[in-house]
């Protein structure tokens, strides 16, 4: 017996063999067409996302290169940071008074920029002392935030170092004192509070600390400060159209803030008038992240006479001096009457891949300073063939060898900075070898407090001439390594640590920093007294 067939809602005939109460199934062809439409839509969305990301990456890459070549008129006379004259107390101590304070500066024509400085609106005075001097520095914090002041490159007690443990509250005064006991050198000072060093240095709190000694003083080198012995403090900024400092980080920058506006001693578009044939330039990279490769636009040869920790054994004839953040170098250049010469930073060799180089400033070039020679120049003694002998530290006498690995952009040996943790313990009076490596894939450099060290090798070969002197800061590209040797003399203190860290200040703030204490033989480290900021 047959049952009458009723039309289904879909317009086709349904048999009793189909499940009751369920809609009819879609034909195979319609299912395939639906699947194809969905697949096409998904693939189209993926393609759009890929094209969008590629377009954004291309836009970022195309905008990452920065340069001011041909854009400056050099119509501002270079400011020379004043030498701060100390007072001498009854004990014979040289006393320097520093006040950190906010202010306003004029960098761009007609624009006012809020800044911070030391004894002024921006940067600070140059301090000067000689080996054997006892110094005391009264640092008063007139800023609205806690800060510190670190004496970069100085051999001194850890409690006077000015690292993150020596926090100065707003309105407070900190008065470290020590005896200068190291060779003539170009050192500097800057904030070093954990987490905010980049911001405080970027706002302008920095200055030079020059040291002399009898051996260097006997050499016929240019030494008339501000005349033929000229400080060159190089910093990059992002100055907005209204003159304000830009505090953002460029998109995809792996190292921190990179600015396209260059200040020399706090001067934008500067020129320097010189009246002697030879001029000594004390170069300091006081930028927070940017590296430079400094020479003259015409490729002239000059003498590099010093590195971070003092004079070389002999002048190094070269056309370029690479400087990563925190590094210093002294050069002596010759000029002809009436000429104008451009001090320039060429694209630095950062050791990254093509994209990484571009994003970290490796394709950037800047004119730094125009040197204007007078029509008649006073004669200068030639640079001596020999400068100062250097004691060679012997790795065979090393009491310890340590391995230090820079990992990621926020850790050393796999651990981020902890103010309450001592990472290394060194015995006073000993020599050590540190093997420092960068396996992070990112650009770094390495700075050690308290000591000047020598490089035994750099990336497996003898160090190049620009790294062959006393150093406290050395660049380390990805995959690079070095062996340094240092003597840890004086100033044992089991509860007051020194720092070692990456001097790209964003990385330091993120935690790429660690601590060591110097102790007497047989002594153990104590938990450091510490305050956390921010």
Overview of this structure, please?
The chain is mainly beta and 534 residues long. 11% of the residues lie in helices and 36% in strands. It has 5 helices and 33 strands. The chain has a 7-stranded mixed beta sheet with strand order 14-13-12-16-21-18-19, with no helix packed on it. It has a 6-stranded mixed beta sheet with strand order 1-15-23-22-17-20, with no helix packed on it. Strands 2, 3, 4, 6, 8 and 9 form a 6-stranded mixed beta sheet that branches. A hairpin with a 5-residue loop joins strand 2 (87-88) and strand 3 (94-105). The longest helix is centred in the N-terminal third of the chain and has 37 residues, at 28-64. The protein is globular. The protein starts with 27 loop residues before the first helix and ends in a 15-residue tail after the last strand.
| Quantity of strands, as a count | 33
Low-confidence stretches: 1-25, 53-57
| Order of neighbouring strands in the sheet with most strands | 14-13-12-16-21-18-19
The gyration radius over C-alpha positions equals: 30 Å
What is the strand content?
Answer: 35-45%
Subunit arrangement of the protein: single chain
> Number of helical segments?
5
Distance N to C terminus: 89 Å
């Amino acid at each position: 017996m047959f049952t009458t067939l009723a039309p289904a809602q879909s317009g086709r005939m349904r048999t009793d063999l189909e499940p009751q109460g369920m809609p009819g199934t879609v034909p195979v062809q319609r299912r395939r067409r639906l699947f194809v439409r969905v697949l096409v839509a998904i693939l189209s969305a993926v393609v759009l996302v890929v094209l969008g990301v590629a377009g954004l990456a291309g836009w970022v890459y195309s905008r990452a290169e920065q340069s001011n070549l041909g854009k400056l008129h050099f119509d501002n006379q270079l400011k020379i940071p004043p030498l701060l004259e100390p007072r001498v107390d009854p004990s014979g101590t040289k006393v320097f008074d520093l006040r950190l304070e906010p202010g306003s500066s004029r960098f761009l024509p007609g624009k006012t920029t809020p800044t911070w400085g030391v004894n002024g609106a921006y940067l600070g005075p140059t301090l000067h002392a000689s080996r054997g001097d006892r110094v005391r520095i009264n640092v008063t914090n007139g800023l609205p935030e806690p800060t510190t002041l670190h004496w970069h490159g100085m051999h001194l007690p850890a409690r006077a170092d000015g690292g993150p443990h020596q926090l100065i509250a707003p309105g407070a005064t900190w008065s470290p004192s020590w005896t200068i006991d190291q060779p003539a050198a170009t050192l500097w000072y800057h904030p070093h509070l954990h987490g905010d060093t980049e911001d405080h240095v970027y706002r302008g709190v920095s200055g030079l600390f020059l040291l002399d000694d009898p051996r260097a003083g006997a050499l016929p080198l240019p030494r008339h400060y501000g005349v033929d012995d000229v400080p060159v403090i190089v910093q990059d900024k992002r100055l907005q159209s209204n003159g304000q400092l830009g505090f953002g980080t460029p998109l995809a920058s792996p190292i921190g803030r990179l600015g396209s506006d260059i200040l020399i001693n706090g001067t934008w578009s500067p020129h320097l008038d010189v009246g002697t044939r030879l001029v000594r330039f004390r170069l300091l990279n006081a930028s927070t992240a940017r590296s430079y490769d400094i020479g003259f636009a015409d490729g002239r040869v000059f003498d590099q006479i010093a590195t971070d920790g003092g004079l070389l054994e002999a002048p190094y004839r070269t056309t370029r001096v690479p400087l990563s953040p925190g590094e210093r170098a002294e050069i002596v250049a010759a000029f002809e009457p009436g000429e104008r010469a451009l001090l320039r930073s060429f694209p630095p060799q950062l050791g990254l891949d093509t994209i990484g180089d571009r994003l970290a400033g490796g394709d950037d070039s800047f004119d730094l300073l125009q040197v204007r020679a007078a029509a008649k120049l006073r004669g200068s003694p030639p640079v001596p063939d020999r400068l100062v002998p250097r004691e060679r530290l012997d790795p065979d006498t090393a009491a310890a060898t340590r391995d230090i690995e820079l990992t990621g952009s926020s850790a050393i040996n796999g651990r981020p900075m902890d103010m309450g943790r001592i990472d290394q313990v060194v015995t006073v009076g000993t020599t050590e070898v540190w093997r420092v490596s960068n396996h992070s894939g990112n650009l770094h450099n390495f700075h050690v407090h308290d000591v000047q060290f020598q490089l035994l090798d750099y990336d497996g070969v003898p160090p190049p001439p620009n790294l062959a002197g006393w150093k406290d800061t050395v660049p380390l590209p990805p995959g690079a390594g070095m062996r340094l040797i240092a003597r840890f003399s004086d100033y044992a203190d089991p509860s007051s640590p020194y720092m070692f860290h990456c001097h790209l200040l964003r990385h330091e703030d993120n935690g790429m920093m660690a601590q060591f204490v110097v102790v007497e033989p047989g002594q153990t480290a104590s938990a450091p007294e510490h305050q956390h900021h921010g």
